[in-house]
Amino acid sequence: MKVASCMCTGLAVLALAAPSAASGQMNQQPQTITFATGLQRAWATVKQNMMEAAEKMPEENYMFEPNPEIRNFGELFGHTANAQFNACATASGQANPNQGKDQELLNKSKAEYVAALKASIDFCDPAYAALTDGTAMEMIKQGNNTAARGWVLANNVIHSNEMYGTTSVYMRLNNLVPPSTERQMRSRR
Fold this sequence. Notes:
Layout: H1 2-21, H2 35-56, H3 73-92, H4 103-106, H5 110-129, H6 133-136, E1 139-142, E2 145-148, H7 149-173, H8 179-188
Antiparallel strand pairs: 1-2
């Protein structure tokens, strides 16, 4: 019952995100968007947001932390890379190439954090590309639990969106407009 409840919550979050992912398509013919397609679109959006945020922040602000008790800007990307490697290894059934590494602590420069984030995205892309509505419902091993493959990938999108939201606040505190807002402002012109 807990898995069903978690899946419903995750699906609700994705359903709310789907209109924003498809907002650029408002003048097109109506579409049928399956769970797998919606998840693939959500992944495309969040990975774009994360990469653009990582690239936009100047090197000198990568160690910025609003409070010494929380992660600095760069560590947010290391943390995200760790989570993405883990989720996509689970979803794809492949060995985690990041196993035993902590990208949050290993990296010390913008170039290193950006490279770690890009590597995790490149590792995840095939897992999302291969997803179908059928494979999304397949039960797979996740640690000590069994979970639907689609839930593992949906949770990865949810977590990555959470981290993007946090990086957006850090960017605003450094007088930078987050990439998603910048794109939205450009589309209104």
